[in-house]
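#help-structures
NK: newbie question, is this the right format to request a structure? protein is Universal stress protein
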Amino acid sequence: MTYVTACIDGSASAPAVCDYAAWASQRLDAPLTFLHVLDQRQYPVSADLSGNIGLGSREHLLNELAALDEQRNKLALEQGLVMLAAARERAIADGVSSPESKQRHGDLLESLRELENDIRLLVIGRQGESSDGAELHVGSQLESVIRIMHRPVLVTPASFKQPESAMLAFDGGATTRKGVEMLAASPLLKGLSIHLVMVGTETTENAVQMEAARSTLSSAGHKVHTAIRTGEVEPALHTYQEEHGIDLLVMGAYGHSRIRQFLVGSTTAHMLRTTTTPLLLLR
C-alpha cells in the first residue's frame, strides 16, 4: 500500500499542507499519513560536552546541561506529537478517514529515503518552520528533497485553494511526455481543465507533439487547452498562468531541455519563490 505522505512542522504553512494532502488523498483514493521529523542537528539525542574547555572538571554542570538537553528534546517530541494529532483532526474534518502519523528523530532526507517505497505522493510546504516570515525564501531542504525523491512531489503555498484547473509545462521531451501519460492515468486531476503550454516556436514538430499530448489527455476525459508561447520559460509560464487564473502548475522535475536547465540549481529556488500556487513536480 502506498500513501499520500505530508511533511509537517511548526510553520505557518502547515495547515495548507494538511489541506492539500487531504485533497490529494481523497482524489487518489489513497491513505494519508503525516510525517514529522525532529531534526537531530537541532535536537541531538545526546550531547557530549566533556571536551569543552573547563567543563570536564565540573561534573555537576555537565549533568545539569545534559538534563536540560534531555528535557528540551522531550518537549520538542511532545510538541511534534501534538502537531501530528492536530493534523489528523484537520484531515478528518476535511473528509479523510483514518489518517495515520509517523514521527522520526533524525534527518528529513534520510527519513524520506527510508519511506520512499511507501510514498505515492509527497506533499511538502514551500516554506518550513525556519523560513516563516521570509516571503521570498523557500525551505532550506526543499530543493534537496526534490532532488532525492523518485516520487511526485506537491509543493504547497501558505494557503489552500482547491484546484479547479492545472497547467502542464510541456517541452515535447521524454520526461514531459511521460508526465502527460501520468496525468492521463491518474485520478488526481480528473475533471479538471488542463492547459498544455509549450515555450518555444510554432514549428510543425512542436504542433505534432502538442496534438499527441492533447489527444492523450482528452481521451482520459480532460478538457484540454493548448498554447505555444515564445520568450523565456519562467516569465512565459507565469504570464499564461496569471492570464487564465490557473490553480496548479505541473512540471517534470528534470527534463532534457530549457525546462530542465530552468529547474536545476539556483533557478529551482527562483521558480519556487515566484510561484504563488501549488507546484506538482513529476518524476
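mod (FA): yep, format's fine, and the C-alpha cells are attached above. Residues 137 and 279 are 16 Å apart (CA to CA).
NK: thank you!
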